[in-house]
Every structure is written in C-alpha cells, then in structure tokens.
Automatic annotation (TrEMBL):
UniProt-listed SUPFAM superfamilies: PEP carboxykinase N-terminal domain, PEP carboxykinase-like
Domain spans labelled Phosphoenolpyruvate carboxykinase GTP-utilising N-terminal: 42-186
HAMAP family: PEPCK_GTP
Domain of life: Eukaryota
Natural source organism: Mytilus coruscus (Sea mussel)
UniProt GO molecular function: GTP binding; manganese ion binding; phosphoenolpyruvate carboxykinase (GTP) activity
Name of the featured protein: phosphoenolpyruvate carboxykinase (GTP)
Signal peptide bounds: 1-22
C-alpha cells in the first residue's frame, strides 16, 4: 500500500526519493504538493544540493515582484522558554502574516531575545509575481503546478513556494515544529511529535495527570484534546491540539510543551454538539479558510446544518450560491479554522509554562474499521515504539482509488518526518535510559465498526472512559487488565460502562487471522520502506508479537 493522503495537503511527488538512505549530508528534503495525484513515496523525498539549487533558481528570482514582503519574527513555544525556538519568516502573503500572528508568538521584542543566536530561516512565496499572468481564483494567489516545499534540515532552513495552504505556508507549524524540529530534537535528545497534550484532573482528589496522543491527520486529536466528559470525575483541559515538543527534565520526568499559540483545526463536523469548546474558541479574532459563508456574514460548513436558519442563503467555498439540502458540499472537507488558543474556554492555566507539563502516558491511534480493539496497553517502552511504528489509518481514498484504503502512518508522522525513519525509531528507543522515567504507551481506536458499518464505540465525550482506564493503569491499579497477544486489554468489570450500551466482545475481539496478517504486513512495510535501518530491537518486538499471535 503506497498512497498519499490529501488530508494534510503536504505530500507530493517530485524528483528523487531516497528513504532507505534517508537524510544524507548535503541533501535537502522536499515536501511538495500536487493535488489529486497519488504519491509513490512514503516518508519524505530527498534531492541533492545542485539539483535543489536548480529548482530554486527556477522559482525564486523575482517571485515576490510587485507584492509586499512581510518579515515575521516568531517564537515556537513561550518567548525565551528553555524548550522554545525562534524563527523568522519572509512571506508575500498577507493571509500568512495574519495566520502566523495567531498560530505562533509574533513580537518585535523577539529581536532582543534572539540577539546573535541562531534561528530557523523560513522563506515563503505564493509564486505569483505582479503583473499577474495567471488567472487568480477567489483572491487566492498561488502557483499549484510549481509548488515546492523544501527543507534543509542541517541548515535549519525552509523554502516554500507556490502554496498558500496552512501546512505549506504557515512555516512555524509542520515545516518547523515537526520536520526541522524533529532533526533538532534528534541532535539535542528530545522529541518533536504530531501529538495533542491534555490535562485530566481528578475532581475528587484534585490530582492532575497529563497525556499526549499521536493520531494521524483528521483522526481526532483536536476533538480529544477539547473533550467534554460524558461521565463525572474529571476536569479536562487542553494544552495543545496538534504538536508536542517533549523533553526529559533533570529528574527524568518527560515534559511537553505546545510550541504553537493557536488551533488550526478541521472545520467540517465541528459544531456545538461535537466540539463546543472549539466553537467557543473561534467566535472572534479567527480566520476561516475554504469554508462557506452565510448571507449575514457568518461561517458555515458540513455539520452546522442544525445551527443556522434552514433558508439561509449560503455561498460555498468555491463562491457559488448554495443552500442546506442542495447537492454538493458547502465547505472543502479539509477547510480549517485558525483561532488563538488563549480564547479556548478550557485552555489549561499552565499551557504556556516554559518548562512544560509532566507526561504520564503516550497514546497512539488511528482509524481502524476492523480488528483493532478500543484500547490496549503496550508491554514496555520498546513494544510501544514498535506499536507506534506500525500505526495505520483509514484514509479518504485519493481519486485513483475506489473505496477506502488503510495506510501506514508511522508514529502519525508520515508526512512530517525530518530524517531517516530507522534512525528516528532508534532515537525513541535510546530515550529509555537512566534517569529517564519513560511513560506507559497505549493504543486506541475510536473507529471500529460492526458488520453493518456502524461505529461500535460512541467516541467523543465517551472517550473519557478510555482515558479513565489509561490513568488508572498509569497509577498502577491491578486487576483491571488482562494480558493478550498484542498488549493488556481492559477487563469489562473494571471499565466504566455507566449509561452506555456496548457490544463489548465485538469491540475487544482479537481475530487471530487479522492479527497474523497485520504483523506480517507491518514487517513487509518496514522491510520495504526502511530496510536495514530498522533497529534490531524493533525486529525483536515484531518477532515476539508474531510468536504471541501464533500461540493465540
Ligand atoms: P489534524 O488537525 O489534521 O491533525 O487532525 P485531528 O487529529 O485534530 O482530527 P480532528 O479532531 O479534527 O477530527 C477529525 C475527524 O474525526 C472529524 O470529522 C471528527 O468528527 C472525527 N472524530 C473525532 N473524534 C472522534 C471520535 O471519538 N469518534 C468518531 N467516530 N469520530 C471522531
Ligand atoms: Mn495535524
Ligand atoms: Mn487538529
């Protein structure tokens, strides 16, 4: 299975690709975009310096002619914090400037904080110099045929051409906070991950625990981070909804910061029932991209049908007249809201704490319609890293495919990996060393379906029940888990099932043929895509898992 998701709109297909050798000196990394095409590559593509030079010279000279160039000094993480990093972005897009002010900390004082120190150099152009020769649609200048999102990880440089899409143009986000930061993190001994960070406070004892969760794009991070619990007992607060920078402190506690200052969230499906906290966050000072507009100047997207007047005149994201019930979509499926995190009603009071919050558990997950239970706990850090490396998820299929496909998205980082994936796994494994107290690692799946295709798990606010079990395991509670071939599974008696009707056995069943197939397919994937760079420890974990499944 080698397909590209258009969900993040960052992957693509250009030039030479070398995953097996991964990052090599004097190579740059390219993430570019060709909408509607399926990528033949998986974990990033690499190009030599001379070839890169040629591609740049073909694009950049004169690319901002006639436009205003903005210089944006920004900090990822609280300004001056020990884990924070500074970047400077040039851009010829006013949209990008406004969004950067929401998503990062932009301040003239940054120049003083920066002094003579190094910073991440970010250049962005929509690739549409004036006088404009191409037709500009809906005031959205871009140059889709020539998009090239390039990174020089060793030089800490990002060059982005031709695209105004968030992931490609708000360079602090995926380009810096994940691709470049993962390389800095490798060099400095920490982690930059595609993870939410949330706090769960026990309302009885007042004790609070923080967790991180890594799910692929459009698999529920923003929703989980802002969850409204369906059962009493926990106060939930969000620290971050997309990216976490994790570092062990001197005592060996893993701490996480959210390097961002805003939420860039999927709009469709967001409403006052599914995610009221997100709705409340973007009522002011927010920017909406590729959504529809109501006649009275409000925003609209699929999922908001019950929240606007049925007869409201609506203009779609493509500037066409539309009304609720009419054919076609009002908003693009990946349309987004951009809102200041500080406006979220459940933002954690410590969300800007420079040293971060202590992490008790890491959770991986994806969209797995069959085979994969609601939750399991891995046996060890090493087993957990293997489980993370084998994360898969159902993608909305690209145009060439009929139906849906399950794609690998290792560590939920497939489009965001800044260096060789084998080395990345080894880096994770190396972190389990004194004095580090590594957190427990879990895997969840909100998306298992029954034979009729209906979700077996209600999800959203009920996900608190899973987190409750996770936290109890972290607290060392015994007798609430049973060992299985793939990890510890909750016992039905121990799980909070108040006011909920469940097909428990179906939700937790582990079909042997499915899991045998799964582990063999994962092995093939790693052999194919990472080859000799896969750490021995990961092969050992895969062998052991296969033996346990054989013995089922
Ligand atoms: P990125 O911002 O792209 O990284 O994605 P994300 O991980 O933040 O995903 P998001 O929270 O925006 O959720 C994406 C989709 O998953 C939305 O359509 C949600 O309605 C759906 N979703 C989220 N949580 C659940 C859940 O618990 N159950 C089900 N069935 N769907 C969910
Ligand atoms: Mn994301
Ligand atoms: Mn999100």
């Amino acid at each position: 299975m080698r397909t590209a998701s258009c969900v993040e709109l960052t992957l693509l297909m250009l030039l030479e690709w070398r995953l097996r050798h991964g990052y090599q000196q004097k190579k740059s990394m390219i993430q570019s975009l060709m909408l509607g095409k399926v990528s033949k590559v998986f974990l990033g593509q690499w190009i030599s310096e001379p070839e890169m030079e040629k591609e740049m010279n073909d694009r950049y000279p004169g690319c901002m002619a006639g436009r205003t160039m903005f210089v944006i000094p920004f900090s990822m993480g609280p300004i001056g914090g020990p884990i924070s990093k500074i970047g400077v972005q040039l851009t010829d897009s006013n949209y990008v400037l406004l969004c950067m002010k929401i998503m990062t900390r932009v301040s003239p004082h940054l120049w003083e904080t920066l002094g003579d120190n190094d910073f991440v150099k970010c250049v962005h152009s929509v690739g549409c110099p004036r006088p404009v020769k191409r037709k500009v649609m809906n005031h959205w200048p871009c140059n889709p045929e020539r998009i090239m999102i390039a990174h020089r990880p060793e030089q800490r440089e990002i060059m982005s051409y031709g695209s105004g899409y968030g992931g490609n143009s708000l360079l602090g986000k995926k380009c810096f906070a994940l691709r470049i930061a993962s390389v800095i993190a490798r060099d400095e001994g920490w982690l930059a991950e595609h993870m939410l960070i949330m706090g769960l406070q026990n309302e009885k004892t007042g004790e609070e625990k923080f967790i991180c969760a890594a799910f692929p794009s459009a698999c529920g991070k923003t929703n989980l981070a802002m969850l409204e619990p369906s059962i009493p007992g926990y106060k939930v607060r969000v620290v971050g909804d997309d990216i976490a920078w994790l570092k062990f402190d001197r005592e060996g506690t893993l701490r996480a910061i959210n390097p961002e200052a805003g939420f860039f969230g999927v709009a469709p499906g967001t409403n006052f029932k599914t995610n009221p906290n997100a709705m409340k966050t973007f009522q002011k000072n927010s920017i909406f991209t590729n959504v529809a507009e109501t006649a009275d100047g409000g925003f609209f997207w699929e999922g908001m049908e019950d929240e606007v007047d049925k007869n409201m005149a609506i203009t779609t994201w493509l500037n066409q007249k539309w009304h609720i019930g009419a054919p076609g979509k009002a908003a693009h499926p990946n349309s987004r809201f951009t809102a200041p995190a500080s406006q979220c009603p459940i933002i954690h009071p410590d969300w800007e704490k420079p040293e971060g919050v202590p992490i008790s558990a890491i959770i991986f997950g994806g969209r797995r319609p069959t085979g994969v239970p609601l939750v399991f706990e891995t046996f060890s850090w090493e087993h957990g890293v293997m489980v993370g490396a084998c994360v898969k998820s159902e993608a909305t299929a690209a145009a060439e495919f009929k139906g849906k496909v399950i794609m690998h998205d290792p560590m939920a980082m497939r489009p965001f990996m800044g260096y060789n994936f084998g080395n990345y796994l080894q880096h994770w494994l190396n972190l389990n060393a004194k004095p580090h107290k590594v957190p427990k690692i879990f895997h969840v799946n909100w998306f298992r379906v029954d034979s009729e295709g209906s979700f077996l798990w209600p999800g959203f606010g009920d996900n608190i029940r899973v987190l409750d079990w996770v936290l109890r395991r972290c607290a060392g509670e015994q007798g609430i888990a049973e060992k299985s071939a793939i990890g510890y599974i909750p016992t039905k008696e121990s799980f909070n099932l108040t006011n909920i009707d469940l097909k428990w056995d179906e939700l937790f069943s582990l079909p042997k043929p499915y899991w045998l197939d799964d582990i063999r397919e994962s092995r093939r994937f790693l052999e194919d895509q990472v080859g000799t760079d896969v750490p021995k420890t990961i092969w050992k974990e895969i062998e052991d898992q296969e033996k346990r499944i054989q013995a089922m």
